[in-house]
Amino acid sequence: MANKVVLAYSGGLDTSIIIPWINENYGMDVIAMIADVGQGDDIEQVVAKAYATGAKKAVVCDLRQEFVQEYVWPMMQAGAVYEGKYLLGTSIARPVIAKHQVLTALAEGAEAVAHGCTGKGNDQVRFEHAYQALAPELNVIAPWREWTLKSREDCLDYAEAHGIPLAQSRKKIHSRDRNLWHISHEGGELEDAGNQPLASTWVWTRGPQDAPDHVEHVEIGFEQGRPVAVNGHRLEPVQLVELLNEIGARNAIGRIDIVENRFVGMKSRGIYETPGGTLIVTAHRELESMTLEREVAHYKEHIALKYAELVYNGLWFTPLREALDGFVTKTQENVTGTVKLALYKGNIEVAGRASELSLYSNELSSFTMGESYDQKDAKGFIRILGLPARTQAHLRALKKEAVR
Question: What is the pTM of this model?
Answer without folding.
Answer: 0.92
